[in-house]
Design goal:
With 236 residues, this protein is an alpha/beta fold. It contains eight helices and seven strands. A seven-stranded mixed sheet has the order 3-2-1-4-5-7-6, with helices on both faces. Helix 6 packs antiparallel against helix 7.
């Protein structure tokens, strides 16, 4: 087994283990703003009827639920490697009355099981930093989009303000792992989270990565003082 396969296996097992407390932990450590971050995509959805959206690293389907009431999206597809997360997501999708327009299934963000030019919109929220090859993930998002389609990436980023950044890093390094452990009893998961946030490219570096994958008109929309960013790119 290659090193990347070992990392993928370890991360998948980690998310399987914390799946039952994943949503509530996210709500607590983000002070409830995680839903607002996900809903920020709504303002960017083109006003066109019956669009198809593919959500990668969909987890328990939170991003699909945040967009579920959009009158401009007719079909959702969500892919993830964690079976336990998807099982929880399917129950949530059914409770919200979105079962008829949503399909959740096992799928790798580095090899999405759909055809070229399959969808109008594609998204990945707080998941691209967990992939072993972020550029390949972006290339896959570009591949499955139709011409003029839009790509949305929500991801943690580092604030430009030195004061906010220092407070944020203190929270990431010393407080978040403790809260995550108290709830999930999994020390590795939330220690892993803060390390990936700090090391993952953000801002201009990530926009350049999107351009390398073929996207144009790339832009960054900072949220919550820049601790999270919404990146948007277009396929020509």
């Amino acid at each position: 087994m290659s090193e990347s396969e070992q990392v993928k296996k370890r991360v998948t097992e980690m998310f399987d283990q914390i799946s039952s407390v994943y949503d509530v932990t996210n709500k607590i450590i983000s002070f409830g703003t995680d839903k607002l971050w996900r809903k920020s995509l709504l303002k960017q959805i083109p006003l066109l009827e019956d669009q198809t959206l593919v959500d990668l690293a969909t987890g328990t389907g939170e991003q699909i639920l945040a967009l579920g009431n959009s009158p401009f999206i007719g079909k959702f597809y969500g892919f993830d490697l964690s079976t336990n997360m998807l099982l929880l997501g399917q129950k949530k999708i059914a409770r919200k009355g979105l079962k008829k327009k949503t399909l959740l299934q096992i799928g790798n963000a580095l090899s999405v099981p759909v055809a070229n030019e399959f969808c109008d919109l594609t998204s990945i929220s707080f998941g691209i930093r967990n992939t072993t090859e972020p550029l390949k993930c972006l290339s896959e998002m570009h591949r499955i989009l139709k011409s003029k389609g839009l790509c949305f990436i929500l991801e943690f980023s580092l604030p430009k303000s030195k004061i906010i950044r220092s407070l944020y890093l203190f929270y990431l390094r010393h407080i978040l792992p403790k809260i995550g452990y108290l709830i999930s009893k999994n020390r590795e998961a939330y220690s892993y989270l803060n390390k990936t946030i700090e090391s993952f490219p953000s801002g201009e570096a990530f926009l350049q990565m999107m351009k390398s994958a073929g996207f144009s008109s790339c832009k960054q929309i900072p949220l919550s003082f820049g601790i999270v960013s919404l990146y948007v790119g277009k396929k020509n």
